[in-house]
Amino acid sequence: MKLKSLLVIILSVAMLGLADNAEAQRKNKYKARKKTNRKVSHYKGGIRGYGRFEPYLFVGAQVNAGNYFGDLAPVNKAASTDVSFTRPGFGLSGGYKFHHSLAITADINWVRIFGDDFTSDPGTEDGFPRYARNLSFRNDIKEFRLALQIFLFPNHGGPNQRLPFNAYLSLGGTVFHHEPKGKVPEFDHQAGGTDSTTPAPQAGEWVKLRPLGTEGQNLGIVEPYKSIAFSLPVALGAQIRLPNTQLNAGIELGIRYLFTDYIDDVSTEYVSLQTLEDNDGVLARIMSDRGSVPVSSKGEARDITNLRILNNHNQGHSYYIEGNVGTGIDGSRRGNPDDNDMFFVTQLKLSYVLGSTTRKRAKYR
C-alpha cells in the first residue's frame, strides 16, 4: 500500500514537470516568432548588406536628333513638323541618383534644327501662303540642361543592383545659345524679278539673320531678340541595364518649350524693304523677303504659277499673292507672334555607372 502511494506521488511530480517544460517551450516559441515578425516588419528588401539604397554617380554620351516646330512648319498645327527637318547632334551628360526613384542630371547638347516653307503644300489654303513666303533657316542650338528624373520603378540597393529595365519622366530647365541663319539666293530677284541675273551679296552662303534685323529690329520697330534664351524641357525616357556591365543604354524623347519666338528669325510683320536697305544694307532686304526667289534654299524649282511677282522693291514689297494681297507688303503678316517656337530632341543614350556595392568579407580572428 505504501509502495503504491509512493508511485502515485512520483508520477504526479513527473507530470507536473513535463507540463512546466511544455509551457516554457511554448513561451520560447512565441518569443522567437514575435522577434521574427518584428524583423520582417522592418525588412527593406534585397540581400543582407544590399537592401538599403546607396546613391551613385553616372556619366554618359548621347546622339541627338533635332526637329523643329514654329512659323516655318508645313502647317499651323501644334507639333506639326516634317521628317525632312530632322538634323543630327550629340551631347555629354552626367547625373547623381540620390534616391531609389529620383536622380538629378545635367547635360550639354548640340542640336541643329531646320525649317523651310518649300515643304508646305501650295494646294491648300493654309500651306499656300507659307509656300509663297519661301523663307527658310537653320540654327545650331547649344544647350545646358538641368533636370530631375522621376523613375517608374524604385530601385533598392546600389549600382550593382540596378533594375534590368526602367522608365522615367524628366523635368527641368535649359539655357541655350542660338543663331538662326539663312542661305542667300544666287541673284537679287527683288531688283530684277524671277529672271534676275544681278548677283546677290554673299550668294550661296549661310549668313546670320539676327544682325540683319529682318523684321525691323535695328529700326526700333520690334524688340531685338538675343542669342541666349531659355526653355522648359519635358522628356520621357526608358533605359536598360547591359548585363554584367556598369553600362545603361536608353532612349529619350523630349520637347523644348521656348521663351522666344525667334529661333527661326520669323515672328511678326514685314517692314519696308527700301527702309531695310537704306539702314541695314542690300543683304537685309534680300533675306527679309524671299518670296520672289524662284527656287528653294536647296535649289529646287518652285511653282510660281499663282504668284504675281513685283520687281519694284522701292514700294516696300517684292510680290503678293493673287487674290490674297498682303504677303510681303510692309506691315503685313510675316509670322505668328502669339505662339513661341519649340523643338524636339530624340536622344540615344549610353551611360557608365560609377561605384560598386561589392564589399570585402569580414576577417575572422
Automatic annotation (TrEMBL):
<feature type="signal peptide">
    <location>
        <begin position="1"/>
        <end position="24"/>
    </location>
</feature>
<keyword id="KW-0732">Signal</keyword>
<protein>
    <recommendedName>
        <fullName>Outer membrane protein beta-barrel domain-containing protein</fullName>
    </recommendedName>
</protein>
